[in-house]
Amino acid sequence: xxxxxxxxxxxxxxxxxxxxxxxxxxxxxxxxxxxxxxxxxxxxxxxxxxxxxxxxxxxxxxxxxxxxxxxxxxxxxxxxxxxxxxxxxxxxxxxxxxxxxxxxxxxxxxxxxxxxxxxxxxxxxxxxxxxxxxxxxxxxxxxxxxxxxxxxxxxxxxxxxxxxxxxxxxxxxxxxxxxxxxxxxxxxxxxxxxxxxxxxxxxxxxxxxxxxxxxxxx
Length: 218
Hints:
Elements: E1 2-6, H1 11-22, E2 26-31, H2 38-41, E3 49-53, H3 59-66, E4 71-74, H4 87-102, E5 106-110, H5 125-134, H6 136-152, E6 157-162, E7 165-167, E8 176-179, E9 189-191, H7 192-201, E10 211-217
Parallel strand pairs: 1-2, 1-4, 2-3, 4-5, 5-6, 6-10, 7-9
Antiparallel strand pairs: 8-10
Helix pairs in contact: 1-7, 3-4, 4-6
């Protein structure tokens, strides 16, 4: 498959690139600064990886990049405790519009556990009163993105992947726990490499189309 990967210079994005190339995919890495991927670029052939500059907030910038791609994967991420976060909601709208223009249907994007509290599925004291308040700005913008996907993107085969706190450990290689809820009964931390592994594994799984999925590893 030919995959466009956004957030390609981030830790999760780089995991996606390496794993996708290893699996035999062609990768178009969308970046602001190509220099940040030179180490990866030097170790793969030109057919496997193309690095292009793109504006994640502009569908006009992204649409030519998406032309000919089979799927778009977003490893975009960022958080702050103080300023307003619009990264997820703004970029998602531009990405979806560009996908429509380029006739690309498959979209896999990272959100998070606990984008909202389900009264019928209590995540516990720590999640409710420590984690969510601390990450309120990030989780709120992720929720806006999730609602947008559910309500306005039924023409797109999206999968929103909700992992726990990300870490930089090696992939566990373990099977995934996957549920349509705000969290799963697994470790509250997961390697970025495992999140990338799931994102790539679910590309061809139509059972995951138009789903918001919490994941963990067994």
